[in-house]
Amino acid sequence: MEQPLQGKIALVTGGSRGLGAAAARALADAGADVAITYVGSADKAAVVVDELVGRGVRAIAVQNDQADGSRAAQLIDDVVARLGGLDILINNAAISVEQGRTVDDPEVDVAALDRMHATNYTGVIAIIRAAAKVLRDNGRIVTIGSGIGTRVGVPGLADYAATKAGLVGYTRGIARDLAPRGITVNMVQAGLMLTGMEPPNPEVLKGMVSSLAIQRVSDPAETAAAIAFLASPASSYITGAVLDSNGGYTA
Q1: How far, in Å, CA of 35 to CA of 58, rounded?
Q2: Over the stretch 144-203, which tens digit does the pLDDT of each residue have?
Q3: Domain contains 120
Q4: Domain CATH for 44
């Protein structure tokens, strides 16, 4: 089996489940050593690490609460110290809360929304800033967005959409910043899939599926394949791009 990422070291945030675990598997299958992060699911993270090691690569799990941006530098330092460097950063960790609650809902949990902004947006930026200092030349950064960041479609998703939309601009900006070092920076806008995040309520889910060109929930492995491509040498002339892997939600 061809392994274009042989000798590379990757970090996948939120890699203990769902899309993050699928991305970690895809990178390992391509030959990369992989670090994953988790918040509280140490047992699940350990299972993923064992699976990756079984694929013939080195793998570690690091506990990290992405909502606390002050921990980003320690996370990157830990990965570099334990695996010997960093070539690929996959920003996958995210949360979704208060779905269906509109901005004027008196019962909305503002503290939960603030934590979501910290996890999905400022926490991602903190990790990118820390990683950019040590990422080797010709490295790769891939951030996982959502079609909801481009087309919201239904009420009650404004804050989640904002966290993902903001990362589109940040991705394009740092693509310019890091291009002189051969580092490419791209986004994959993921669609509906079974990831372990809080699912939409059944009526919202039904409406979202009906809005797709491909009217089904996706398998995380489908989007992981797109992530692995953008992490590979084959994507060397692609940067600042937003790739939709969402069944035509934004079409």
Answers
A1: 8
A2: 999 889 898 888 999 999 999 999 999 999 999 999 999 999 999 998 887 665 566 677
A3: yes
A4: 3.40.50.720
CA-to-CA distance for 31 and 56, rounded, in angstroms? 8
Give 63's DSSP letter.
E
Is there a contact between 164 and 148 (Cβ–Cβ < 8 Å)?
yes
Cα 53 from Cα 29, distance rounded (Å): 11
Residue 79 near residue 62 (C-beta atoms within 8 A): yes
- Name the amino acid, one letter, at 1: M
Q: What is the pLDDT of residue 132?
A: 98
The SS3 assignment for 202 reads: helix
Number of domains in the chain: 1
Q: Report, in angstroms and rounded to the nearest whole number, the Rg of the chain calculated over CA atoms.
A: 17
Calculate mean pLDDT across residues 232-249. Answer: 96
CA distance 85 to 91: 17
Q: Which among 149, 143, 151 is positioned nearest to 166, based on CA atoms?
A: 149
The residue range of the domain holding 127 is 9-245
**Helix or strand run (H / E) with residue 36:** strand 33-38
Query: How much of the chain, in percent, has pLDDT values that exceed 90?
Result: 80
d(C-alpha 82, C-alpha 166), whole Å: 32
Is 2 part of a structural domain of the chain?
no
Query: Residues 20-72: pLDDT tens digits?
Result: 999 999 999 999 999 999 999 999 999 999 999 999 999 999 999 999 999 99
Is 4 inside any structural domain? no
99/159 Cα distance (integer angstroms): 9
Which DSSP category does 185 fall into?
E
Higher-pLDDT residue of 204 and 213 is 213
Active site (catalytic) residues: 160
